[in-house]
Amino acid sequence: MSPSPSSPPTGWRRWFYRAPLGLYRRGLGGMLGSGFVLLTHRGRVTGEPRQAVLEIVEREESGAITVVAGFGPRTDWYRNVQAHPEVTVQIGKDERPARAAVLGPDEAADRMAALVATRPRTARRIARAVGESAPTDLAPEAADQRWRDLGARTLFVRFDPV
Fold this sequence. Notes:
Blueprint: H1 11-25, E1 36-42, E2 49-55, E3 58-59, E4 65-68, H2 76-83, E5 86-91, E6 94-102, H3 105-118, H4 120-129, H5 140-152, E7 156-161
Antiparallel strand pairs: 1-2, 1-5, 3-4, 4-7, 5-6, 6-7
Helix pairs in contact: 3-4, 3-5
């Protein structure tokens, strides 16, 4: 069964999700801590700069960060980075160029399994965002497989430093 992510937000929910963008634009992005990234990317049709603030779900020693397109494949920033993978990421005041890469199903499954082990609350939030419930009522082996299956269907995007 494929997850059915909620629709991109509208109305007050859209304002709520975009509020952190205002903090970054005023030079106050550091108030969000190191768990969020300001993504500057190009529009797939216009080529104009666009921005979104996203939650970081994983960091690597190389400086790469990973996020999830919680609203699914119709999310604007996700579609834009597929068309134009050269982006800029900013965490607090640290801004650097990066290249976006959508993870394949096997690597995404591995990432989800790692998240379940190290950050279970984040894994449960991701499950809710993509329209699934956390597999908590299953035997451990079945739950592990269900998490991996969910991960394989989740849109993880890694931003590698350039």
